[in-house]
Amino acid sequence: MTGLLPRLALFFLALALPTLILVDAAVLKLELIELKSRIADGALERSARPSLPILAALDVRQTHFKLLAEHELAVLIRRVQDPKGELHEAAADVLYELDPLPVRAALLAANGAILASVPDAWQPLESSSIWRFRHLAKIALPESRGALWIGFDLQAPWWRALEQWRIEWPILLLIGTLFGLSGSWFLARYVTRRIARIRAAAARWSEGNFAEPVGDTSRDELGVLSRQLDGMAGQLQGLMRLSGERRVLEERARLARDLHDVVKQKAFALGLKLGAVEALSARDPQAARVQLNDALGLLAEIQQDLVETIEDLRETVGGALNLAIAERARALCAAAPVSLELDLEPIDALDVRAQEDVLQVLSEALTNSLRHANAQHLTVRLACLAETLSLAVLDDGRGFVGDPIGGQGLRNMRERAQRLNGGCLTITPLARGTQLTLSFRR
User: Fold this and answer.
1) Which of 211, 218, 305, 369 has the most CB atoms within 10 Å of its CB?
2) What is the pLDDT of residues 264-285, one digit of tens each?
3) Is residue 9 part of a domain?
């Protein structure tokens, strides 16, 4: 039972039972208050007056004394319980509702001994409790012939209402059922369907589809909420459009840096080589052939750089960071005569932007080692200490030549490092080779 409608119907049915008990107990309580008022007004004494001379005239030595006394006590009890008697109807109605034998009576001798009682063997008790209401009245018989005890022994209204099955119960249950069904129908028509529309719109928005709003124009709370959600969806759509445009501009800037760092410089060098070939072709064919071979090598490198740039555009960054680093390193070193050692600690995937920056720094570092250092062995290490990640690229090449601060490629790597959380790029000369280290926080 997970839906709102069956839960609501069950709630109304469960609410009907305690409501019935409270209403029934309240009605009985009002009738009991009326009964107490009549008792205080002397109704019991007035009801007992006709029986007093008859009971006083009975002789305990008669053969049928007890039967006669019990008969007169029963007559007295019927007179008290008579709705048209001294208690009147409003007070007498509560008697049978609270107890099958509501009125008790007993005849006492002058010495206080009980001669007869209805019901039989009844002992007068005056103490009331939360579960029972008791009231006793002692009336003296004429000529000091003894006394009459008459009183009530009734269950408490709330206890009787809980214990006794009454005709109002099925009626109230029927009313509760009808109320629950009608309330469920109302909610289904005016609430749950509108909530379903909001849920469907939210599902579309989570997929990036903001074309269809909720469109609830009512003035109640759900209508106000729907219009606020529609406004939020419009704002999100605008933010996504701006974010997309920003990503496009950033990607264009990245491509411009990559093409400037690699392709433009090599294309410029290729132009110089071809110019030298043209100048030497007539007077020194052998030197011209050397320059031409160099130009063809530059052309092959330019082609490879363009292929790598295109592959970067197609690549989707994802998965664990150590797996992405291993895949990128193997791909770059696959065609080179170099041995590759990977020492990578398992690290969960980073944010897409951060992971792309890390992989681009790795690509630039490996490319520099392969093209310029004449390295025979490369090592890539990834480690995590507390919340700090460290990516190191080591080679056994000829070491760094020139100023490690300058160079567009190094500047691009440092820019990427600075975009990372606490990112720092360091270059350390080794006894043989160079170590480039990128450190940043998750």
Assistant:
1) 369
2) 667 767 777 777 777 777 788 8
3) yes
Alpha carbons 365 and 361: distance in angstroms, whole number = 6
Q: Which of 170, 195, 218 is the C-terminal boundary of a domain?
A: 170
Rounded Cα distance between 275 and 269, Å, is: 10
Pick from 252, 254, 272: which is nearest to 262 by CA?
254
Contacts 24+ apart (CB under 8 A), 97-101: 97/28, 97/31, 97/160, 97/164, 98/28, 98/32, 98/133, 98/154, 98/155, 98/157, 98/160, 99/153, 99/154, 99/155, 99/160, 101/153
Dihedral sign from CA coordinates of 280, 286, 291, 293: positive
User: Highest mean pLDDT range out of 50-59, 200-209, 286-295, 408-417?
Assistant: 50-59
Torsion of CA 190, 196, 200, 203, to 10 degrees: 130
Cα(250)–Cα(416) distance, rounded to whole angstroms? 12
The domain in which residue 157 lies consists of 4-170
Rounded Cα distance between 329 and 366, Å, is: 8
Please name the residue that has the structure tokens 């106000």: 224
Strands (E), 146-272: 147-155
3-state secondary structure 332-364: HHCCCCCEEEEEECCCCCCCHHHHHHHHHHHHH
Select the more confidently predicted residue: 157 or 343.
343
In a domain, 142, yes or no: yes
**What domain count does the chain have?**
2
> Does the model's pTM come out above 0.70?
no
The mean predicted confidence, pLDDT, of the chain is: 79
Q: Cis peptide before 213, with omega less than 30 degrees from 0?
A: no
Q: Is 279 within the bounds of a domain?
A: no
- Give the Cα separation of 413 and 361 in Å (integer): 5
d(CA 418, CA 411): 10
Q: How far is CA 389 from CA 340, 350, 386, 438, in A?
A: 21, 11, 8, 8
In the chain, how long is the greatest CA-to-CA distance? 168
- Contact 399/428 with Cβ under 8 angstroms? no
